[in-house]
Amino acid sequence: MANSALLVMDVQRDIVAIADDGSGYLPRLRQAIDGARAAGIPVIYVVIGLRPGDQEVSPRNKVMTNIVRAGLFTEGQPGTEIHDDVAPQQGDVVVTKRRGSAFSGSDLDLVLRARDIDSLVLTGIATSAVVLSTLWHAIDLDFGLTVLADACLDTDPEVHTMLTEKLFPQWADVFAVEDWLKVIAPQ
Fold first, then answer.
1. Three-state DSSP class for 74?
2. Residue 50 per-residue DSSP state
3. Which of 6, 26, 114, 186 allows an S-S link to 36, with CB 3.0 to 4.6 Å?
4. Are 46 and 5 in contact (CB under 8 A)?
């Protein structure tokens, strides 16, 4: 995992408030972050942020139009900040994206290539949104992929289970945080 990075995607205050089901998601994600750091794996945060005034949202984009109407994800608003329980440390990279995939409208690919990162470990909210979109995009960019199933969260548990147990294993290694930490633990 020498050329890997852990992506912590869309774990922002408003998103956590909508999706967190009280199952211990944030502490598990914190364990993954701490374990990655201990193993020397960079942690890169990805947030969704839209410019005020919906300048970049086409009315043809149903999902993004609904998000803008709900007043979510406007840059500079408190709800767009990364949740305090998993907040970045000084020196961590935070990438802002404009759509579903962590690569869409962001400089993530540039950040990864500059660090010679060729494998990604995906975490985030929601499994059926940012994780799925980023996984597909990363496949097309030839990244090696790992998904930490219990460090991903979705508002629909059945969709989460279907993705992490049936679809994702076709293209990525899928681990529970605890099992992944055993794999990356410094010897």
1. strand
2. B
3. 6
4. no
Q: What is the DSSP string of 5-46?
A: EEEEES-BHHHHHHH--SSSHHHHHHHHHHHHHHTT--EEEE
Domains and CATH numbers, the chain: 4-184 (3.40.50.850)
Please report, to the nearest 10 degrees, the dihedral formed by the alpha carbons of residues 22, 151, 134, 56 taken in order. 40
- For 61, how many CA atoms within 13 A lie in the half-sphere containing its CB? 14
- Residue carrying structure tokens 């597909």: 136
pLDDT tens per residue across span 84-122 = 999 999 989 999 998 889 998 899 999 999 999 999 999
Task: Give the position of tokens 């059926």.
Answer: 128
What pTM did the predictor assign?
Answer: 0.91
Nearest to 106 by CA among 117, 120, 116, 95: 95
